[in-house]
Amino acid sequence: MNVRRTGLVLALLALVTVSLCLPTAARAVGIGVGVDVKGGTLSLDEPDEDYDFKATGLNFVLDTNVAADRIFNYRLALGYERETVEDGQGNRDLKIDRMVMTNTFGFGVVRTAPFRLWIGPQISLAYGYDSDFNGDFQDFGIGIGPALGVNFNLGPVVTLGLEAGYEFSGYSWETDYDDGDGTRNGFRGAAVLLFRLDDNF
């Protein structure tokens, strides 16, 4: 697979997704920023090797239902993360810059004026790049997994959101002289600060 071309497709897909969400922004919506942390195991098929990874990210966040008494919400998190990959002994240290789009489909199981508890699946697309590797490194991943979150409404317009989940990802990578596939599985936690526009219980 051409990872660079796939990364461009991801960027176009992100722009299309945001443009589709803009009509929703004319109605009730939450817009803000978020930070996330990730950690888990990256397993390569060939060579058969496992690595530990940790990542932190900063995102633009849009949510179609933060506080209203409706069951469904769609949350888009689009941003940048910095990932460190190393083997179990810490002998290999690879730092990757990555663009990530996370799509969350939430279903409110508890809906009150002070807070909303939701659960649902997340689907993510990610494109990474590191030119300091011995041969330019690129990767692409598609992930899916469950997520649980809660929104605390701090006033008429501000909401603090916390979420946690586990992601199972298929993973492809390439350098100037090699390529391969594998899996990238691990936990994800996030905190978001949202400003609500006409979005109240």
Features of the shown structure:
201 residues, mainly beta, elongated, 66% strand
Task: Assign the structural class, choosing from mainly alpha, mainly beta, alpha/beta, alpha+beta, or little secondary structure.
Answer: mainly beta
Q: Could you give the distance between the termini?
A: 47 Å
- The number of helical elements comes to 1
As laid out across the biggest beta sheet, the strand order is: 1-2-3-4-5-6-7-8
Strand content: over 45%
How many strands appear in the DSSP assignment?
8
* Main beta sheet: 8 strands, antiparallel, barrel
Computed over alpha carbons, the radius of gyration is 18 Å
**Can you tell me the residue ranges where pLDDT is under 50 for at least 5 consecutive residues?**
none
Summed up:
This protein has one helix and eight strands, in the order αββββββββ. The protein has 201 residues and is mainly beta.
Word description of this protein:
The chain is mainly beta and about 200 residues long. Helix content is about 10%, strand content about 65%. It has 1 helix and 8 strands; from the N terminus they run H-E-E-E-E-E-E-E-E. It has one helix at about 5-25; strands at about 30-45, 50-65, 70-85, 95-110, 115-130, 135-155, 160-175, 180-195. An 8-stranded antiparallel β-barrel has the order 1-2-3-4-5-6-7-8. Strand 4 and strand 5 (about 115-130) form a beta hairpin. The radius of gyration is 18 Å and the shape is elongated. The protein starts with a helix and ends with a strand. The mean pLDDT is about 85.
